[in-house]
Protein: Ketosteroid isomerase
Organism: Paractinoplanes deccanensis
Amino acid sequence: MRSNEEIVREAYRLAEGDVLDGDAFRALFAEDGTFNDMPNALTFRGDQIPLALQGFAGVFPDVHRELLDVHALGDVVAVELRIQGTHLGAFPTPIGEILPTRNRIDVPTADLWYLRAGKVERFNCYNSANVLLAQIGAAPDFKSAIEAAAGPRPSGTRLL
C-alpha cells in the first residue's frame, strides 16, 4: 500500500497541465471525498472533482504546482506550494469572463489533505486568490468600494 505522502504526490502529478488526468485524480478520493477551494467557498464532490481540475487547466493550460514542503503527519498531509501557469483561457467571474492576458501566475498556496485507508476524504486548498487575480490584472476595485461606502447616508447617521 502506498503511503499518504505518495498518494498526495500522485494527485499533484495527475493535476499537472501536461498530464491532466481528472479520472485518475478522482480515483484517489473516497466515494464521499471532497475537494474544497477554501478562498472561493467551493466544494467539489464525485464527478465534479475532475471538472474542477479541467476548469482550472482550461484557464491555465500549462498549470504546474511547485511543491515547496510536504509534511505527512499520520492521516494528514500538509503541503506548501506555488501554483504556476500562464493565463491562456477565459477566466469566469460572476459578471463575465476575463479574457486571456498571457500573464504568468505564481500563487502561494497551502493544502491540507485528509486521508483514511489510502483514500482522500477531504482536500482543502488554501490558495491566495487575491494574488492570482492581481497577477491576471483583476486587482480589487477599492475606489468603487470606497465611493459606495461614502455614498449618501440617511440624515442623522455618521461614520465611526
